[in-house]
């Protein structure tokens, strides 16, 4: 093994100490380690002074110096744009959505997803305002500790870490189900192990590798989503092997609304309610864009663009997808009901694939399943990233063991990545249980955690807004607030009230006559009570207090962002414009990179 190889392995697996610390939000200090073990501290120069200051005898302060021992800002605008889209489009949009169609019918599914987009959009706007103001690592979790209460921040961070971590085994289990669409004669442990190794390699070497991987995988998701919408349109007007112009036939027969659990009006309402609850699982919020804030190049310009695309994304992919599913297949289709009742593997449970089978389309289901495989892989990769960065953010603020904050030379919190990947081992539960049962457990856990996270975000925002008012920070100042939420604080209050109600409603079926199940109850509600217990325990043990608005720290980290922007624009001005090839020009037009 050569010295270069050994050095590369060392760069990946051995963390390096941070050189730069950011103090009080107003000054940046460089900590220099001397041979005798003593530290000296030196302030970075003001922007009108010489940029370089010696950090030791051989190195000077550059963007690399600022990043050593911390995560690196390497994600470009195009990475963030596609992560924002791809991170929210999972296999559930194409497969699990069938449960909503069966339970509520096409109209209930369409209305349920459409209406749930409203609180999601409100939560996104509230989160975007905070994150774009202070784009640091784990921004909304850090803001919860600074503006509300340290115990509240611990609760919010733990809840989000569980949310993202539990989705890793979900996607691993789903990936295995998709493989069963083609063959069964293999051990589920093989694809699980291969995926875990792949996630480790993508996430541990450099954040730019993660960004590039997600960029291309997200393009595949977009192609699949748009392709299935086009499939719906062309086949409904007769462009199919049967020349069947079926239009909105399935909305008329068996009808737009299904009864669920009960009969009559109550049954139809319960069908609609099940679709709203499903929508909470299908539709992700602003978390994925928010979690890359600390690793985004020029974040105060890049992040607002990604957040502003949310309304388009919700309308096109989720509302459009719900409409298409209700068009292509009947909610009473025997193949659909059989696939859901018997846990038919992979794309076999997808309404689109069932429609293709009904229309005698042979090859397309295999193409769809292949693209679903890439979607499942991409989603698991995104969850690994978000989980590790959440743990990193908790460790950086002393709310998790400090070694989880250690980064390698590539700016990756390697121990956090390993800890997050440990959750993937839960996917091996399917070796002893039906994979569909494991998926149901995780779906219930995720739904409760997602709703809790949304509620905590809205509360954090209102405390943040109070702090801005108390400290005389003008939200109308566009130099500080590059993104402003609409109709605040009313939008955040209404959204918070809605998601709080659904936190307790989402598992109501377990209390119906004959439906009691200990496992279902625990996965629906245990995380909520655990969050409350964590909050109380931390508050009692650490004796924390709710933070007064005038004492909230909403400035620490601004100096790092300002210094990054200064170095970024200085380099942009001093370097000649890079010559772009064909794809580079396309990227410039689409993403501004």
Automatic annotation (TrEMBL):
Family annotation (InterPro entries): AA-permease/SLC12A_dom, Amino_acid_permease_CS, APC_YAT
Keyword Metal-binding: no
Transmembrane segments: 82-101, 113-136, 148-168, 188-210, 222-242, 269-289, 310-331, 351-373, 412-429, 441-464, 485-505, 521-541
Pfam (any one): AA_permease
GO MF terms held by the record: amino acid transmembrane transporter activity
Subcellular location: Membrane
Residue ranges occupied by any Amino acid permease/ SLC12A domain in the UniProt entry: 79-546
Membrane topology term: Multi-pass membrane protein
Alphabetical keyword list: Amino-acid transport, Membrane, Transmembrane, Transmembrane helix, Transport
Gene Ontology CC entries for this record: membrane
PANTHER family on file: AMINO ACID PERMEASE, GENERAL AMINO ACID PERMEASE AGP2
Recorded family membership: Belongs to the amino acid-polyamine-organocation (APC) superfamily. YAT (TC 2.A.3.10) family.
Name recorded for this polypeptide: CIC11C00000000993
Organism: Sungouiella intermedia
